[in-house]
Amino acid sequence: MAAGLEREKILLLGLNHRTAPVEVRERFALEKRGRHPLAHLRAYLPEVEEAYYLSTCNRVEYLLVTPERERTLSGLKDFLSQETGLPRADFEPHLYLFEDLEAVRHLFRVACGLDSMVLGEPQILGQVKEAYREAAGRYRTTGPILNRLLHRTFSVAKRVRTQTGIGSYAVSVSYAAVELAKKIFGSLRGRVVLLVGAGEMAELAAQHLLAAGAQRLLVANRTLSRAVELAERYRGEALSLEELAEALLSADIVISSTGAPGFVITRELVRPLLRARKHRPLFLVDIAVPRDVEPALNELENVYVFDIDDLQQVVEENLSRRKKEALRAERLIEEEVLKFERWLQELAVYPTIKALKEKAEEIRRRELARTLPRLRNLSPEEREALEVMTEALVQKLLHAPILYLKTGYHRLGREAIGTVRRVFDLDGELEEAFRRGDLRQEGAPEWSPWEKRDSQRPR
Amino acid sequence: MERGIEELSPAHGASNLGLNYPLGRAKLRLEASMGIFFFRLSFLLYGVATVGFFIYFYTLKPEALRGARGVLACGWLLHTGALLAGLKVLKAPPVANFYGAASFLAWTVVGAYFFLSYRGPKVYTLGSFLSPLILLLMIVAWRAPTALWPLPPSLKSFWFPIHALISLTSYAFFLIAAVAAVMYLLQERQVKRKRLGGLFRRLPPLESLDRVNEKCLKYGFPLLTAGIVTGALWAEEAWGSFWSWDPKETWSLILWLIYAALLHERFIVGWRGRRAAYMALLGFAVWMVSFFIINLWMPGLHSYGRWS
Predict the structure, then answer these.
(1) How many A×B Cβ pairs under 8 Å?
(2) A57 is catalytic
(3) What is the rounded end-to-end Cα distance, in angstroms, of chain B?
């Protein structure tokens, strides 16, 4: 058999939010129903050498290394049909299949968030890492190729994160609010967040702000019960809307999302508070429509007002920046795919070099064993000298073909390996021919010049 | 200066050196020229650091910032060498002429920059705005007569070096406060007008810039006060009166009043942000008058002599 990846293929079969509706995706999330596919895959597809399985809410992907492409593919589809309970025809049109370098590229793109619904989102890398941990640690279904590939994937993702700005622009309204707050306050540590109105988006923003270091949460709402509920969840304080002025005294960041028809936070309300606040900056985020915060407040010193359109604009601009960065990320990935290709090729070169060396060593030993009995009265030094000389001969003869393999591979591809293997008969094809009698005995592997000499010598 | 080396002769003692110009001994000439050599080398490094800070401002790569700060620190060490050489030659801090004062001011600005980078809020792009100013100060120093003039007798006092060093150090803090004020006003404009592009991302957070202003005030104001008091003590010793309404004294008093007002408003009323920034700029404008115009063009006790 030829070496390395002559026959093994890397297959990536899966579906994602673009190719499959959620009804199909949820059926495919097998691990959620307590049947992790890697636990049974080996019994079902014994020819598969390595396997990895990724499942997120937006995608399910199988990455396999197999020497038998067709059998594995149809076997996997049968397996999926059986496990999901869907007939093959129902999910086959949603599947995508990538092979070899295409699969490598896809995996890199997924891990970098280039294939995600929100371009460049960072969670996917964690999910890929977790999936690899499951495969390598718990189910032990990975081998040399996938181990190497996944580790490459992590470093590619890291490289893309640090060398492009793909992840550095906030692309949701609530994150944009946090980023803006950081640009005003520097650190959010010790800051007080006031929610006016307890909507879902406001809660999300408050969550992000608290995660970014904000200290205290105040919730003012028309219906106090909702305020109390929210305040309890984040260990904050609940207030009624009548206490708004008081709350505005201690708040640094205000997120307003009431359903009120007019302005809730007006210039008249805030202006007298500024001196009492000792002119601390006040950042008002107005995500309500119609607006809660009077726009004229933005003209006051140390008061900054952003409404939903402002935030939306930030998000939009950031998205287009991410798209630009994504192009740079694609170029990096292309580079890394090439590197991985080279590694795969080297994987095929090394066994050939090893076989070549082994064959030469075997011949050297055999011939030495034939020769030494003829040389009686050899001193240990002379024996040693013979050993050294034969080793040197073998090494010098092999030097050029090994160099040819190592350097010629990138230019000539697999042909170089094939040539060397054929020329040195590393796969035993010639030997086979001798045995069958297709070739004359002269030059057979067992042939030795001693025999010729012995036969010519008169007895 | 360059001719000095071959003229090595054990001529006059160092004691009467003070009043002889050009400086008497070749060894001292050598040291003086070493000082100038160090000064020029540090100027070069400050230039490289400025380029580094610009690259950081454009790319926002942390390595660029680290590199720029490293080069700046090296330049600062050489600059320290230049000042020490001057100290050795004059047997007094080399701040009695405009070259020395501007050079020492540049040195303290760099020192204060490092001090604030370690002790203050994180304002990573401050260096990009500050380093051209440092370079400018170095150029001003270079263009001024670079000779190390010996001290006139009136300056040979216990109080003079203390007065000069303290005052110049307080200027360094006010200069940084002014730079932070410019950055603050720029950034505030971006935020208020919702122009959240490249400049917005590169400028530090508003509060951090305001804290730089506060810190500079906190360190600069007591130094300025001490500078004025020691100046008065020295004046009493040299001329027999604490205060003589010399233009420099008048303008320093104005400067002191501005910063006193800012300090008061800041810590009692809670002024901050835009107003504090404007005050810092006003103080800077007054300082410009007192440092450049009065020292160079107005006759008086602080005249460093005209440009040659």
Answers:
(1) 53
(2) yes
(3) 17
* Predicted local confidence at residue B3, as pLDDT: 32
Among B196, B197, B205, beta carbon nearest to A186: B205
Are the C-beta atoms of residues B166 and B231 closer than 8 Å to each other? no
Is-contact A276 A302, C-beta < 8 A?
A: no
B273 vs A302, A310, A314: nearest CB: A302
Do A208 and A178 touch, CB atoms closer than 8 A? yes
Instruction: Say yes or no: A81 and A121 in one domain.
Output: yes
The reply to whether B7 touches chain A by the CB within 8 Å rule is no
> What is the domain range of residue A31?
9-163
Going by the DSSP 8-state scheme, the letter that residue A166 receives in this structure is T
Domain C-terminal end among A279, A300, A316? A316
Same domain for A159 and A16, yes or no, is yes
Cβ proximity of A291 and A257 under 8 Å? no
Phi, psi of A80 (to 5 degrees): -65, -45
Give A-chain residues touching B214 at CB under 8 angstroms. none
Both A132 and A46 in one domain: the answer is yes
Q: Work out the pLDDT band at B307, boundaries 50, 70, 90.
A: very low
H-state helical runs in B193-246: 198-202, 206-239
Flag whether residue B121 sits within 8 Å of chain A, measured between CB atoms.
yes
pTM for the whole structure: 0.71
A279-324 pLDDT, tens digit each: 889 999 998 888 899 999 999 989 999 988 888 888 888 888 889 9
Answer yes or no: do A347 and A300 share one domain: no
Sign of the torsion formed by the C-alpha atoms of A373, A374, A379 and A381 = negative
One domain, residues A154 and A180: no
Total count of domains within chain A: 3
Question: Could you say which of A7, A22, A57, A168 is catalytic?
Answer: A57
Say which residues have a Cβ less than 8 Å from residue A20's Cβ, sequence separation at least 6.
Answer: A28, A91, A94
CA distance A307 to chain B (A): 11
Q: Are residues A158 and A180 in the same domain?
A: no
Give the contacts of B251 (CB within 8 A, at least 6 positions apart). Answer: B286, B289, B290, B294
Nearest CA in chain A to B203: A183
Contact at 8 Å (CB) between B161 and B93?
yes
Dihedral-angle region of residue A11 (phi above 0 means left; psi in -120 to 50 means alpha; beta otherwise): beta
CATH number of the structural domain spanning residue A191? 3.40.50.720
Chain A residues whose C-beta sits inside 8 Å of any chain B C-beta: 180, 182-186, 275, 277-281, 298, 301-302, 304, 306, 310, 313-314, 317
